[in-house]
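Replying to the earlier thread about multi-chain prediction with a worked example.

Input:
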Amino acid sequence: MCGIIGIASNKPVSVNIINSLKKLEYRGYDSAGLATLTDNNINEKKCSGRVEELEKILFKTPSNGNIGIGHVRWATHGVPNSLNAHPHSSDQVSVVHNGIIENSDEIKKELEAKGIKFKSQTDTEVVTLLITEELKNNKPLDSVFKTLKKLKGSFALGIIFKNFANIIIGARRGSPLAVGYAKEENYIGSDSYALKSMTNKISYLDDGELCILTKDEVNFYDTKLKKVNKKIFTLSEDEASTDKGEYKHFMLKEIVEQPDTVKNCIDEYIDSIKKNINILNFPIEPQNINKIVLIGCGTAYNSCLTAKYWFEELTSIDVEIDIASEFRYRKLKFNSNNLYIFVSQSGETADTAAALDICKKNNVKTCSIVNVIESTIARNSDWVLPIYAGIEIGVASTKAFLGQLTVLYIMCLKLAFLRKDINEDTYIKNIRNLKKLPDAIKKCLKSENNIQLMAKEFISAKGSMFLGRGSSYPIALEGALKLKELSYLHAEGYPAGEMKHGPLALIEEGLPVIVIAPKDKYFEKTISNMQEVIARGGKILFITDNKKESLNENIRFGFRVPHIDNLLTPILLTLPLQMLAYHVALLKNCDVDKPRNLAKSVTVE
Ligand code: AGP
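Result:
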């Protein structure tokens, strides 16, 4: 998604704007730009492509000015070119925007009917020209406020004004916007990550709020333009996570970090002395919870689907799962004894945030499992369970997925014990097993070169299938998602038992089929599904934790993960699939950390 930055300072800002835009690159984009106020003139520079291109333009024609805004654009309206890149400026204002103005066509027609000319194909330009119109009779804040009332859709805005050269106005509806504070310098940004190299003091706008900042002060206003005070958070120091170190890609670093991040997570939730899980403040009495609804998108949805098997296995609680973009439009029946759990790495995914809002409006209890604890979804939930994975930069989620699974499993164990669905022995045994997980993950990562050989099978493949049963099915979905988003190869995740109901028609000579078959109650059935594939020429890549199973001659490659217990196996089965997707992407020269068309945080629906 787009990323915005604004800086009001006592010194020139363009270098810091560029540095912040580089921090925002992980969100995914296809053009970049900035505008500064120099001698009361709006000095706009923008281009398609990477921030480096913008930097080259600035090098040739420097932008001075102590007030400025910047933007990396992920195209929603209008092709990714310099004309559609942000900022969008008139002779009076310059605007950067993250989100979608849903009634932009209607507004554009009204303005064109007044003879106002547009330069771009974007929705954002209507904001620029509406504010310009309002400025004829209003001060900046009122001009912006009146403009926002006309807009439908979502936005985080940064706005500078030709004739008010000391202010930046920010506004938020649906897309996140943070404010940062420093000495003789203040900032707005899409997230704290864009600001953390300049400050660790951060506030967050809530929907409907505006802010005006100068280099010396920041004022916030609510939906009625009344001044409000905002809490100032101090960010944790985890700068280390924002550097690749000796790794070629953030994704590889984040795969390799998993033994540590999972251990961090376990240590946060399990009292190592009492060997007890220290989750206490459930928003509903555990005995009174009659249903858990798990909601997420993409990889976060796959962690919900995996957790469903754990809740069914260990508790007597009814479990429902849903994709957030589906949930938010369903005709829902809410119940005060349902616990709605929102899983989101970024905590900013628009569909997940919207689904949470619907639950809040229906006065039901909500929990969020997030990696960014100061995120919108976390701040809007009754209860937050962080995954403690550290900043995840790679667009393809890896360590956050394992963090989500770890927290969901821990929550499930605690609930099962509190509700007496499992006895103390089982509870203690499962906690003991959980503590073995980091070392088992480490063992999986040691077999990377086997995976590199496997990856070669995909070079000329036109697609692939990932098959699994039971809790291996969501892992098949996750493996397919990783391969799709990293190598741009078509890949299907499917319940192995479904092959005969159609997908078997896809099997032809040499098609790579990843069969995920741990030694569980489904093993024999999955093996017979595998035989059906072999009989039709499929090339089997076999992932198991079964030491005894000799890999039959028709299996092209096998990968064994360590076995702790069947409940934890899905977590371990994920590792080879993450590494496989990574190495296939390398072989296909894809952009591993910033796959095409994708964004790290999908803040538009
Ligand atoms: C994961 O590899 C993808 N990048 C994507 O599916 C992601 O999981 C999804 O957009 C949800 O993001 P969130 O966890 O930040 O809400």
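The chain has three domains: 3-237, 240-435, 446-605.

Feel free to reuse this layout for your own posts.
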